[in-house]
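Q: What would this chain look like folded?
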Amino acid sequence: MLKNNLYYFLFISGISIGLSQDQTVGLFSNTADAAPGYTLFAPMSYNVTYLIDNNGELVKSWFSDYRPGLSVYILENGDLLRTRRLQGQFFQTGGRGGGVEIINWNGELVWEFDYFGDQYWQHHDIESLPNGNILLIAWELKTDTEAIENGRNPNLLGGNLQPSGFWPDHIIEVNPESDSIVWEWHVWDHLIQDYDSSKANYGVVSNHPELVDINYPNDSPNSSGDWLHINAIDYNAELDQVLLSVHHFGEIWIIDHSTNTVESASHTGGNSGKGGDLLYRWGNPQSYRDDNTNVRTFYGQHDARWIENGSQIMVFNNGGGRIGGSYTSIDVITQPMNENNQYVLDSSGIFDPDTLSWQYIATPSTNFFASNISGAHRLENGNTLICDGPQGRYFEVDSTGSLVWDYVNPVVNTGPLYQGQAIPIQGGPQGSTMNRTFRVHRYPTDYLGFVGHDLDPMGPIELYMNTQTLTYIPNKFRLHQNFPNPFNPETIIRYNLPENIFVNITVYDLLGKKVKTLVNQAHVAGPQSVVWNANDDYGKRVGAGIFLYQIQAGDFIQTRKMVLLK
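A: My prediction, written as structure tokens:
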């Protein structure tokens, strides 16, 4: 857990920065054992996505007209791929999005694809494929009548989703070049049930682990109509398979992506020869072996990823409702495959393994419990980056579970906090704060998406006020990109001075007309900053648009653009 009432020290290029005793956000720990790279995160309550270095300094940000809904990724060309949460939605359940967009490095929207309506709705996660296509998770509407016709127990129907009905999941693959759906998989095509013998899909559930029991879970009605709540998707290019995290089942599933859409709706075809049936499932054998002797491992998990070149799978196991008490763990399994790359059942008809390959649990275990969202990411050096989503805390542990990096998201629904400010509580899920985050990703320093791009640090996101004491002198002049950008109502402009010098910073409109003189005085050497509140030299508020800001310090002149929103 986060430490309190201590002094913390950041080491930026070997330079110490002392922070006040009331630190609440930002970087708390950065050791030499942390994996080098840049960490991407999108606060769920805000429209900006951030990229920071291991020192907790901002290197890049992207603005969107929408909050995330929920995943964000950096593509190998440097573009930002993100889901977006559309307004006016009827769903009263978590993870809803509705659309996907790509924003280039310069902040320009270059592609958007909305997938929502009264019959379907994108949610949670997306996955970029090697061919440039994108996989989306989405709900689709089935009426109560359709559910009953497929063997659903009527006592398990009902809910508060509008339109009312039964909402299973499906996966679509979208080609961004044509905006067309080129592949689909629907769980609705792979059902079994043992409730109504008059239906065609009636059978012995335990004999068909490749199929999904339409009446599981069967302990109580689904209160929302959101039957499966798939919340993560990952792709294995070598196997051409898709990994899914199925929240309400406490399972991960693997399906064949080598099928065409017709085959994916059947039980034959593809590299597996099994069409769209489940190739593998793990985490809760009770979903297909209704036997209390079968031990459940996953409880409300929110992330699943292939690691170690696809030989293992890592899962963020939220752990709510575990027997013996709720606590979160990061679980790794080694999924067994035969010489034909097929997943095999043990003698009792259950998919192996029967033990975990690696696990992270806090000490004591109750010190770490994320009731919802969250994720885990295996890094190149073998460490694991963990996102405590409800608390907006990102921390990295080594293979022994020792903490090597620790950061708390400083951005809430109103923007960045000042250092020392309390993080507001979020109404809703247990333990959630306004800086909550779905997941984070650490990209290595040599990631292809960074080639040719400026990643110079611009300082911490949080606004330190008087709690920051700087003890170093920059080695060159630099005018940083303003932050936030775009902005409203104000933005901060940071600049570095390697010597004592007279400084002028002026804001211009695009026609070159002076709008505001921000700085016109002598400065001592060091990192400096100034805030522009969007007023001109006469104290009048300027209109929205693009502005230029320029620094002149001796022979050094540099100009940047910034955008004021309405």
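The CA atoms of residues 423 and 439 lie 18 Å apart.
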